[in-house]
């Protein structure tokens, strides 16, 4: 779940302004209130742990290396939900560089200043593929730093059928979301669609959700995400 990943960028687009460049986004985010420590300098142990977990990810998707991801391994514990309850389902959490987390829930980005994934115990409990899981969570960050991915994500949004949108609205209502349907779609559900298509978990609950058009677009998106470094434009 993501609480403060792209709010400023989304607001600019909502006013009809173009999506800013990655550098411009950093400048915008830098003007906002941030945590006490803007950039966490990882210890040698933390960096070694993160690098080890990311090695197989970058072998599969070398373009991802340029975005400065970090990973924290907390697979000895469960994530904490708002209200203090442990989550027995949350396998991992993505934090934007300035993510502070929801009140009463997770502590926010453990490595402020870096796009970060934190792995939790259910990832082991459900015997999930760690590389696949990390890659799927990285997709949360790409709309803010990869214009081509952002454009394909919007293209995917445009393929949603009336039946899919109706199911999305039912799901939003049944979950008791405090966010508006539009915010939930932007910061959670749409990413779940693309993640389930590109990097499904073992349950693969999204397998029968997609249209043929969406599956073809998914191939295009995945090819972009996993393209070799020499194809950088």
Keyphrases for this structure?
single chain, 233 residues, 2 domains, 3-stranded mixed sheet, two-stranded antiparallel ribbon, globular, disordered N terminus
Descriptive notes:
The strands form two sheets. The protein has a three-stranded mixed sheet. Helix 3 crosses helix 5 (130-138) and helix 7 (147-157) packs antiparallel against helix 10. The protein has two domains: 24-142, no CATH class; 144-231, no CATH class. The chain is mainly α and 233 residues long. Residues 1-37 have low confidence and may be disordered. It has ten helices and five strands.
Write the layout of secondary structure elements.
Blueprint: H1 7-14, H2 22-30, H3 44-60, E1 70-74, E2 79-80, E3 86-87, E4 92-95, E5 116-120, H4 122-125, H5 130-138, H6 142-145, H7 147-157, H8 162-174, H9 181-198, H10 212-225
Parallel strand pairs: 1-5
Antiparallel strand pairs: 2-3, 4-5
